[in-house]
Ferric uptake regulation protein
Amino acid sequence: MTTEAKQSLDFEGDLRRAGIRITRPRRIILGILQETGDHPDAYEILRRASALDASISLSTVYRTMKLLEEHGAIQRHAFAGGPSRFEHTGEEHHDHLIDVETGDVIEFRSARIEKLQDEIARELGYDILHHRLELYGRKRRKN
Amino acid sequence: MTTEAKQSLDFEGDLRRAGIRITRPRRIILGILQETGDHPDAYEILRRASALDASISLSTVYRTMKLLEEHGAIQRHAFAGGPSRFEHTGEEHHDHLIDVETGDVIEFRSARIEKLQDEIARELGYDILHHRLELYGRKRRKN
DNA sequence: ATCGGTGCAAACCTTTTGCACACTG
DNA sequence: CAGTGTGCAAAAGGTTTGCACCGAT
């Protein structure tokens, strides 16, 4: 635990330092990703961005997603079936539990699972670059 | 544990019992899935099926995949990026480690991870229907 | 003979790309 | 001002579907 709270809010500065131009669309899209607590897909991001600047296009959303992904500012998820959904990279790594009835996404983390994954990969002779753990479940009704 | 070894080889019978007609394309596709050890995508399945019956179409492959998936005979994987890849449901559940450099898929299983997943879901108030665990890694070079 | 299954082509959905213009640094 | 970024429209995957014919039961 004890991961010190990263002041991860300065993506703009990070990008600028990397030689990336901060344009109006990028600022808007980045702002949306940073503020939201959910996992919107490209169309949803476009919808929200359009409210702030009607001229933003879907291509720009996708291009910005790719850019931000490459710079580690966001992560791309491909939950079963649908389109990619994006999430801004926060302080701490987590995995997802998807409610198959509502589509809700619940975040959780387990240091023990992470550790087990590392052990397994090591036994197989690999170094893990990243992983994906998704639980698909249904809300338990108390009985 | 002690799941008794299912003689899971009689998918045809299972399907027939479920009122599904066993046609030539279905038998061929099912055969391919049962024999292969890898995780082919729809085009690859079509390619192999075509060798046995040149008239089989991609639509039939997809339709059969959906059918088999619904009957639990196969699983559909959506590894990062590419198209869906299919795998015939074998005796024992397993997860995947994807070699990011070669695309190779290595299967592994860990009862401890499965157990942890159940615990986590229970704590969150959910019952797990299924899950997806993929490790993306690079072969470790001895140094 | 019936009704489900198939091939074909067209449609769909998500994502990428070519091009000419616009804007950031 | 140079060169990157953008919008638009078209293209590129991957997957699904409407339709008329075909074949399993």
In short: Chain B touches chain A at residues 78, 80, 97, 99-100, 106, 108, 110, 112-113, 116-117, 120-122, 124-140 (CB under 8 Å). Strands of chain B lie at 74-77, 85-88, 95-99, 105-108, 126-139. Confidence is low (pLDDT under 50) at residues 1-8 of chain B.
